[in-house]
Amino acid sequence: MSELRDLYQEVILDHSRQPRNFYAMEDSSHRAEGYNPLCGDKVTIYLRCEDDVVTKVSFEGAGCAISTASASILTECLVGKTRQAVQELFDSFHDMLTGKAEPLPDTEKLGKLAVFQGVCEFPMRVKCATLAWHALQAAFDETNDSITTE
Amino acid sequence: MKALNEAKASTASRATFGVDEVRNDFPILKKTVYGKPLVYLDNAATTQKPQSVIDAITRYYSEDNSNIHRGVHFLSERATTAFEDVRVKVQNFLGAARPEEIVFVRGTTEGINLVANSYCRKRLQPGDEIVISGMEHHSNIVPWQMVCKETGAVLRVAPINDRGELLFDEYKQLLGPKTRFVAIVQVSNALGTVNPVREMIQEVRRLDHHVPVLVDGAQAAAHMQVDVQDLDCDFYAFSSHKVYGPTGVGVLYGRYDILDAMPPYEGGGEMILSVTYEKTTYNKLPHKFEAGTPNIAGVIGLGAALDYLQGLDLQEIAAHEQDLLLYGTERVRAEGIRLIGTAAAKTSILSLVFGDVHPHDVGTILDREGIAVRAGHHCAQPVMAHFGVPSTVRASLAVYNTREELDRLTDALRKVKEVFG
């Protein structure tokens, strides 16, 4: 049960029940959809950037607790960051999820994202936690296409 | 009184059916997962294999391994005989008229694609219609869509009701002079609904022209007696790995005259009688449809699986699984969990929707309890769309499952509530 408690921390459950910044942004400068064909989870990320700095983030979609909470927390972590800084944050996040962070995840840098540390014990769920981030990257690239986890 | 008699009958069948002995035949069931005894409830995805199937494959590779149909040596003859013996076993299993009507393929999906390509693609014209049901697996939708795209034919879908049952009158109305092919699932993989396939085919036979009917038997063959002549179907497809056999092998049954008139599906060795650069003469049935070296060990494993299944008595299996289905349905409903697929005629599938909790989260929690279920859309997205859910948690039953395992499932579902509040 303790690994499950690590995975489904209160913060994660709270964000999955009441996702933050959950709306379709009308004045977004970038937008992309992420889709996991294996489970049908969908997320659309909306971004507003000014001079390469993120000023507003929102999302819409439906998915499991992990993917919803990940998208919700993502929207709270990016404002004020450049694309380069966002990419570095994602790299650290991804390393933490896949157990590659050496020697230990940089929780100071990861901030709120550290609540997803338990995911590394559940390799099948890494895709859930990264779906919104992959959509975010597609949004930056302005592909405006649907990206999938497969 | 009637109910009491039925209850007695079901207790009696439970007593005579030795589930403990059956469990002993499956080595993987002794495994523990995260320190807990494995509860395997993902049988609609693939069943576990009895020791006799594992032994048959090992014995083949240890003692008989050789290519078939061509060699003149001892081993080749033994392998060929063993391979062709399974064809006769499958013929008997399905009640087919002739062994040549049994074509070995990779699985149900390939069987359906063979028919779509070899039968439909050549014959269908713009405006012709293919009829399917609203509870098909993607493998009985997409091949027909591909045929329609290429030929200009139209796919017609017979709707289902909110219990997941076919609307028979609507289905009848779809059949008409434009109907050129009918493809229907016998048991829905997402809902467990058993379609009245025999009656559905009788309706097709009322048409003035002969319309071939393919039955997707992937989820049926392990759970009920199949007789293709009694069903009066033209094609029947099933997979070895869902009837306790190995993966990578399946069967396509086809009525002899129809199969015989169809062009080959793939070209290569085995499917020819003679080849020159000017002209190739194709082999007879069934070899015409078996290009290349087949999955010999897989076919031999399938033979062992059918021996195993028939040694158990399919009626006893059905009674045992029906008891589990009713018991599981009661337990799950008592927890206030919604069931998708509540057809009157149903087998072996519990498809659950857990309020706001996503099936993947349920699946993860169940997994840590040692319980294997499927969380997802089960390759049946149109079925999910009908019920307005993206996916479900599916517990699917097999001959070796027990009431105690369904108690473990219910306990674990309670744990989901604990975690998610």
Strand order of the largest sheet of chain B: 4-10-9-8-7-5-6
Measure the end-to-end span of chain B: 43 Å
Within CATH, the superfamily of the largest domain in chain B carries the name: Type I PLP-dependent aspartate aminotransferase-like (Major domain)
Q: Taking strands numbered 1, 2, ... along the chain, how are they ordered across the largest sheet of chain A?
A: 3-2-1-4
Query: What is the helix/strand order of chain A?
Result: HHEEEHHHHE
Q: Which protein chains are joined by the largest interface, and how many residues does each one contribute? A: A-B, 21 and 20 residues
CATH topology grouping of the largest domain in chain B: Aspartate Aminotransferase, domain 2
* CATH fold title of chain A: Sufe protein. Chain: A
CATH class category name of the largest domain in chain B: Alpha Beta
- Whole-number radius of gyration of chain A? 14 Å
Question: What is the CATH first-level class name of chain A?
Answer: Alpha Beta
Please state the average pLDDT score of chain A: 90
**In what range is the share of β-strand residues of chain A?**
15-25%
Helix proportion of chain B: 40-55%
Précis, in short:
The complex is a heterodimer of chains A (150) and B (421). By secondary structure, chain A is an alpha+beta fold.
Task: Give an overview in words.
- The complex is a heterodimer of chains A (150) and B (421).
- By secondary structure, chain A is α+β, with helices and mostly antiparallel strands.
- Chain A has one domain (2-141): Sufe protein. Chain: A (Alpha-Beta Complex), CATH 3.90.1010.
- In chain A, 41% of the residues lie in helices and 20% in strands.
- Chain A contains six helices and four strands.
- Chain A has a four-stranded mixed beta sheet, covered by helices on one side.
- In chain A, strand 1 (30-36) and strand 2 (41-50) form a beta hairpin.
- The N and C termini of chain A lie far apart (30 Å).
- With 421 residues, chain B is of the alpha/beta class.
- Chain B folds into two domains: 2-50 and 313-420, Aspartate Aminotransferase, domain 1; 54-310, Aspartate Aminotransferase, domain 2, CATH 3.40.640.
- Chain B is 43% helix and 16% strand.
- In chain B, the strands form five sheets. Chain B has a seven-stranded mixed beta sheet with strand order 4-10-9-8-7-5-6, sandwiched between helices. A four-stranded antiparallel beta sheet of chain B has the order 13-14-17-16, covered by helices on one side. A two-stranded antiparallel sheet of chain B has the order 1-2.
- In chain B, a hairpin with a 4-residue loop joins strand 11 (272-275) and strand 12 (280-282).
- In chain B, helix 4 (74-94) packs across helix 11 (296-312) and helix 13 (359-368) packs across helix 15 (403-420).
- The longest helix of chain B is centred in the first third of the chain and has 21 residues, at 74-94.
- Chain B starts with a helix and ends with a helix.
- Classes of the chains: A alpha+beta (150), B alpha/beta (421).
